[in-house]
Amino acid sequence: MKKVPENEIICADSIEYMRSMPEESVDMIFADPPYNLQLAGELFRPNNSRVAGVDDAWDKFDDFDAYDRMTRDWLAAARRILKPNGTLWVIGSYHNIFRVGSALQNIGYWILNDVVWVKTNPMPNFKGRRFTNAHETLIWCAKSQASKYTFNYEAMKALNDDLQMRSDWVLPLCTGEERLKGADGKKAHPTQKPESLLYRTMVAATNPGDLVLDPFSGTGTTAAVAKKLGRRYIGLERDEGYVRLAKKRLAAIPVASDAEAIQHTTSKRKEPRIPFGTLVENGLLAPGTMLSSPCRRHTAKVRADGTIISADHKGSIHQVGAAVQGAPSCNGWTYWQVKSDARKSVPLDVLRQKYRSEAAL
């Protein structure tokens, strides 16, 4: 197996190249394969101007069997190089996504979500014989059902104004300055995806330093976003013109050197466990400090061993919190409050986060 150059756009046939890569070496794959649009004839607007559709040779196949063979080949090669806990994203339209979905399930991938990219500015349906095609579908899947894949739930929630991220993503097409142009001033690639789309997939399913591969790299959108987010990347593209454009694009992007800026919100389950007694022994809370409930009906005193005591109960912050409420359980970190320096009451969790930050945990 060859040693794979990282942070490169490589001019090569993606299937052959992936077959030569080390097994289980990639954390995430984003694939934007040919859609096999099966276009017949030219399309014109009402003003008789020609629509610049996808009529490139790389999107043309003799029949569905030929397309299916290509799909099975690249999906199998991609699965071999995915790490056991790696994930794959593949995007398509109604022309191909159902065939791709069937193939990836047959090969052994485990589908996690299908995500609908709702385009805010889709191309109109000029003939008026069908609905305007205003969305594309992404399939997000793990290498297998047993994979312990990465999903940065809290980061996705933070991106969405502290609401759960849904599977319908409303994002515009790639336009304006983001759209790469050729020497003739026209769009360089017919299906260049917006960076916002790749940004969301990468923040959701990778961590800084992870290796992301794009087997149909085009003009390098996946690599560009990876570089901005501090991920390593490999782009595979057999068209030399697209490779040159991608390399020029990447050369203008600075390396993400601010390690703190590219970090994202992590799940509380992944944060280091901090016993309540740690706050006491490190002086963030003194023995005798009074805690109160949010409604101020219940109070408890902090003891030197990290337990607390109320009028009728003593034990951990969780046990006493549950007891005073007559509840089966209680998260004492968010239930109990303490006076802060500003004389305002804050949950104990604020002190826990302060300790984590100061101790660099």
Throw out a few tags for this protein.
2 domains, eight-stranded mixed β-sheet, elongated, single chain, 11 helices, four-stranded antiparallel β-sheet, Rossmann fold, 361 residues, 14 strands, alpha/beta
Write the layout of secondary structure elements.
Blueprint: E1 8-11, H1 14-20, E2 26-31, H2 64-81, E3 82-92, H3 97-107, E4 110-119, E5 135-142, H4 153-159, E6 168-171, H5 195-205, E7 211-214, H6 221-228, E8 232-237, H7 240-251, H8 276-281, E9 290-292, E10 299-302, E11 308-309, E12 314-315, H9 317-325, H10 332-335, E13 337-339, E14 345-347, H11 348-358
Helix pairs in contact: 1-2, 2-3, 5-6
- How many structurally independent domains? 2
In whole angstroms, the N-to-C terminal distance is 38 Å
The overall average pLDDT, rounded, is 88
Low-pLDDT residue spans: none
Order of helices and strands: EHEHEHEEHEHEHEHHEEEEHHEEH
What's the total count of β strands?
14
* CATH C-level label of the largest domain: Alpha Beta
Whole-angstrom Rg: 26 Å
Tell me the helix content. Answer: 25-40%
Instruction: Give a quick account of the main beta sheet: strands, pairing sense, barrel closure.
Output: 8 strands, mixed
**Quaternary class:** single chain
CATH homology superfamily of the largest domain: Vaccinia Virus protein VP39
Query: Within the CATH hierarchy, at the fold level, what is the topology of the largest domain?
Result: Rossmann fold
Strand order in space, largest sheet: 1-8-7-2-3-5-4-6
